[in-house]
Amino acid sequence: MAQAGKGKLNYRCPSCFMRDLDIDMFYDKDKKEYYCIRCQYTGSEEDVLAKNEMVRTRYGAMNTRYTKFDFD
Predict the structure, then answer these.
(1) Of 5, 35, 66, 67, most Cβ neighbours within 10 A?
(2) 3-class DSSP assignment, residue 5
(3) Whole-prediction pTM
């Protein structure tokens, strides 16, 4: 297997991130793609960023404080 290192930025693996695991991806310069050593996910930078944005929607209201609940 070729030697690989961290990319320009530390991207999270979208597949692991969906399962609430915070795993950094590695970058393969020869293939120009990112890959995860835990779940075998591979993808281009654009693919990784798009899928991470999709996962982040579940944390959209994380910084919102709810004080009124209309359960009645």
Answers:
(1) 35
(2) strand
(3) 0.67
